[in-house]
Amino acid sequence: MTTGRALAGLYLPQIRMDFAAIERRARAAEEAGFHSVWFIDHLAPPARRDLDLLDAWTVATAVAMRTERLRVGHLVLCAEFRHPAMLAKMAAGLDIISGGRLELGMGWGSVARELVDYGFTDPGPAARARRLAETIDILRLLWTGEPVDFDGEHWRLREAVCRPRPVAGRVPIHIGGAGTRLTMPLVAGRADWWNCPSSAAGRLAELSRSSGAARISVQHPIGLAASSATREEVVETTRRRFGAWGGVIAGTPDEVVAALAREREAGAELFICQFHDFGAPETIRLFAEEVLPALG
């Protein structure tokens, strides 16, 4: 059983949502005592390029400036989009101006077509995973504030310096995914947190044995019904919107608690929720008041 209190994060992909709506939901999450809010990192929505999508880093920065305690991050930033030295500088800057509230979620690129269509090279999953490993190594070296020389397979630096340093001297790194061949070795060797996606939540106990010392978060689409009278409608809506994701949890607060308690027993500390109504403030408050305390 995990010690310490359970934490909640709000997953808020910035699709079909203007910034005013994002800000309202982030503020509601902060007021309810949520730990964090999380955005996505794509150049366009993967399945609907005709839709608007605000830039990941801009949104995280703006939300950090409009909140006081809520931590901000992405699930996940695509490492292929940014040179590691630039990312180290960006992360240190946002961490400082937010008062140390950045969580750096990293991945090696989940949509290969996006890389190709937008002019990035795609050397294949194995090479991208190795590039991510080097990127994380470079981030941690640069955050020391000392000159860095680095000779890797993919990146080379000479007397590179990143100052000022992050508030705590480093930023927590989250790695998302569940692949046993490429992702989990990265988690075990380099992550502060492992984010288990909803599609793999059923294998959390098994996969966690490969996560090393990383703390565990689990990401779920969650349909939270305020009462038994609305349960059927909420369950149907959640399955219609998110059923293809896997790992859907839907029902009354007691039912959601029962489902998440099993993952809590398996070591999960942070539950990152995409709600059936895309994070309406009343649903955020209901989760904070009736689900989170029951998870310990």
Describe the structure.
By secondary structure, the protein is an alpha/beta fold. It has one domain: TIM Barrel, CATH 3.20.20. It is 39% helix and 20% strand. It contains ten helices and twelve strands. It has helices spanning 19-32, 56-65, 84-97, 112-117, 125-142, 183-190, 204-208, 228-242, 253-265, 281-291; strands spanning 7-11, 36-39, 71-74, 77-78, 102-107, 148-151, 156-160, 173-176, 193-196, 215-224, 249-251, 268-275. The strands form two sheets. The protein has an eight-stranded parallel beta barrel, surrounded by eight helices. It has a two-stranded antiparallel sheet with strand order 6-7. Helix 6 (183-190) links the parallel strand 8 (173-176) and strand 9 (193-196). Helix 1 (19-32) runs parallel beside helix 10 (281-291), helix 3 (84-97) crosses helix 5 and helix 9 packs across helix 10 (281-291). The N and C termini lie close together (10 Å). The mean pLDDT is 96.
What structural keywords apply?
alpha/beta, two-stranded antiparallel sheet, 10 helices
Number of strands: 12
Strands side by side in the biggest sheet: 1-2-3-5-8-9-10-12
Reading off the top of the CATH hierarchy, the class is best stated as Alpha Beta
- Alpha carbon gyration radius: 19 Å
State which percent range the strand residues make up. 15-25%
How far is the N terminus from the C terminus?
10 Å
Structural class: alpha/beta
- What count of helical segments does DSSP give? 10
CATH topology: TIM Barrel
Task: Give a quick precis of the structure.
The chain has ten helices and twelve strands. It is of the alpha/beta class. α3 (84-97) packs across α5.
